Write a sequence for this structure.
């Protein structure tokens, strides 16, 4: 069976759901919360750098970026190993779309851009780690993930939502909105891979 990990990143961590099957018969084979930033560093690097002198701010962000890339690589190794007994891992979906950001000074001067930069740090780390492993990487919208997945999968939003919600009876807790969105994104990545 072809498989995909769907990931919903947050600041410093992500929900990852391993899926196979289809929109009408999804198979959730694994789900977990993965850490993407070491505990010793600020998960919100841009917020932590906000009041620092420019050189210290840039150094802190670079340190966190490097550490996140290394830890995310280790997480992708773990996720790849976890998928192996279940089938052929072919894709990864990451909720969030690539975003161009202005120079560091502009980011640090704008609160909305601070949040955008935090999100981009973790989304990009997941994308890059998956690409290094030869996985097809699919971006899903941060809002309306299930709605877009339904369109791509050729089903209705209500049907896909009902199918994903019903999985809680089979899987038990935790099965929250992040898990459902990650599963929908993973199914979408599988469909686009075919």
């Amino acid at each position: 069976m072809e498989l995909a990990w769907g990931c919903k990143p947050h600041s410093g961590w992500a929900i990852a759901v391993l899926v196979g099957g289809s929109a009408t018969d999804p198979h959730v084979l694994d789900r977990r919360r993965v850490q993407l930033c070491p505990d010793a560093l600020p998960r919100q690097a841009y917020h932590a750098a906000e009041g620092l002198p420019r050189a210290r701010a840039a150094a802190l962000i670079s340190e966190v970026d490097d550490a996140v890339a290394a830890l995310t690589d280790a997480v992708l190794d773990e996720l790849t190993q976890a998928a192996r007994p279940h089938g052929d891992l072919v894709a990864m979906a990451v909720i969030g779309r690539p975003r161009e950001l202005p120079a560091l000074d502009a980011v640090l001067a704008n609160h909305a851009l601070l949040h955008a930069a935090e999100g981009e740090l973790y989304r990009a780390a997941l994308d890059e780690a998956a690409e290094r492993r030869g996985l097809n990487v699919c971006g899903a919208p941060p809002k309306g993930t299930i709605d877009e997945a339904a369109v791509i999968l050729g089903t209705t939003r209500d049907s896909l939502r009902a199918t994903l919600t019903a999985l809680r009876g089979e899987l038990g807790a935790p099965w929250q909105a992040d898990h459902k969105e990650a599963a929908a994104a993973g199914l979408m990545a599988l469909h686009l891979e075919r």
About this structure: Residues 12 and 37 are 5 Å apart (CA to CA).
